[in-house]
Amino acid sequence: MTPKKADRLATGILYGIAGIIVVILASLLLYILAQGLPHVSFKFLTTPSKSFQAGGGIGIQLFNSFYLLFITMLVSIPISLGAGIYLSEYAPNNWVTGLIRTAIEILSSLPSVVVGLFGFLLFVVKAQLGFSIISGALALTFFNLPLLTRNVEESLKAVHFTQREAGLALGLSRWETVTHVIIPEALPGILTGVILGAGRIFGEAAALIYTAGQSAPALDFTNWNPLSISSPLNIFRQAETLAVHIWKINSEGNMPDGPTVSAGASAVLILAVLLFNFLARFLGKRIHKKMTSA
Amino acid sequence: MEHIRESLIKKSKKAKLEQIGKFVSFLCITLIVLVVVAIFYFVASKGLATFFDNGVHLKDFLFGKVWNPSSVDKQGKPLVGALPMIMGSLLVTFLSAIVATPFAIGAAIFMTEISPKLGTKILQPVIELLVGIPSVVYGFIGLSVVVPAVRNVFGGSGFGILSGTFVLFVMILPTVTSMTVDALKSVPRHYREASLALGATRWQTIYKVVLRAATPGIMTAVVFGMSRAFGEALAIQMVIGNAALMPHSLTSPAATLTSILTMGIGNTIMGTLENNVLWSLALILLTMSLLFNILIRWIGKKGEMK
């Protein structure tokens, strides 16, 4: 075979591979949406689930997913902001910082089951919080922290050093420079990272099975007392999320319309994640435009 | 006079704020490091209890072929052989990496060398979307599409390593691809120009120059994908069949470390052998994840472009 022929053949094969990947994704998305969307109705999204009869919805699970996401972010954003600021502004270039970076890298590569089991042991068993939203949110925080921290650090580092010099030259302390000059400048990057992280958390199940629990007790949406057990705001109640619900239906199989419910739930989950991705791009661009007047 | 003296000697408000800020941000980073240490400590102390408290030999655990922790064999030793799960995990990991690597490299070459325009317009968003799909959804699709397909083609139940491999292949493909793209992009442009100037065709340039120069980066990408595959739990648990037997064929039900772990931990009582031995499985997972991490660092160090 002449080199020219080989070149043409290779190009053809590479086009083929790219095509196959696009086809895989397209069929995945189409399959989920075609299977799931017909079952998604207002009733499906708002009614509670049933375990031994057909016709259950995903109302409580959907609420739990969002609420858990909210609590997780409430805990993990401040911590990762602090950690990111330290790494980008204060950390000296020595072996301790190297060790810290290694630790963060290891944490981000740990399997999510292991993080979930650790959360189970520490919060559910040792701290006696039981299967609860707070246990789940803390486990998800561990899972979320390394990525968010790295994102904050990178966004802060991307800010030009002249901005820091300008702040310091005006007599601001380093901390004030960071909070008043650098963070506003880095906000679009940080926000994009937060939203992408939110998408990841929204679909996470392995870390939640043994922390937030696998059942969704009935909620009374008129009860807004956070200490009452039937209140949606109570953080000490069990809370099965949408992703856990899909897993549970499929691995237990005692729901007569399990396949249709999980197809509908998968469609909702995918749409939510797509929405997060879209939002991340859109908001990132929008804020960048607004703040830099470009 | 007195208050000027005082303001000169005393720390200013701003200096205090600076100190507090630095301290708080340092606390945050310490917290993360503490979490990592705590994870290792707790999982190790629970996982090692199997060997120290229950007296199971490490050899029986790692190489035993029978998994039935609630019963004992003829000599009265508990049946806690983890080899079936270790084999299952390793098999699905390696097989899915073997299938995913050519696709990932092909797609990455397409995106960087052949058609960057189509690549950034179509392939890039496609791959980003694939990353975002939650693992339970992959599991659900595996259960409702891949498993029946395998059943129809190869017979049997359809659950098994083959189905698991297929699901993991799709799951790790985007990660490996985007890391390979980064590796190819980091090959300096003048390498390509030099090769083309010598009269090499595009494919010769890709094959003999670009891929060679990017090999360490590509290997890192593959190892990273493998560490993902090894730790994946729910998607694989839904399609592999969860039978803790030595895998005899690719289409017979098998189990992985993660699948037995997720199934079992809720059905056993804390502190018993049945529970401790599950924590030992978690310890294996943790160790493997650490090993993959070290491997990635080692490749990175060896292959630094000079």
Automatic annotation (TrEMBL), chain A:
GO MF annotation list: phosphate transmembrane transporter activity
Name of this protein: Phosphate transport system permease protein PstA
Localization, UniProt: Cell membrane
SUPFAM superfamilies in the record: MetI-like
Coiled-coil intervals, chain numbering: none
Matches recorded under NCBIfam families: 3a0107s02c (TIGR00974)
InterPro entries with a match to the protein in the record: MetI-like, MetI-like_sf, Phosphate_PstA
Organism of origin: Vagococcus humatus
Domain of life from the UniProt record: Bacteria
GO CC field: plasma membrane
UniProtKB/TrEMBL annotation, chain B:
Membrane topology: Multi-pass membrane protein
Coiled-coil ranges from the UniProt annotation: none
Key words, A-Z: Cell membrane, Membrane, Phosphate transport, Transmembrane, Transmembrane helix, Transport
Domain called ABC transmembrane type-1: residue spans: 86-296
Major site of localization recorded for this protein: membrane
Compartments (UniProt record): Cell membrane
Pfam assignment, any one: BPD_transp_1
Family the UniProt entry places it in: Belongs to the binding-protein-dependent transport system permease family. CysTW subfamily.
Function: Part of the binding-protein-dependent transport system for phosphate; probably responsible for the translocation of the substrate across the membrane.
Protein name (database record): Phosphate transport system permease protein
Source organism of the structure: Vagococcus humatus
Gene (name only): pstC
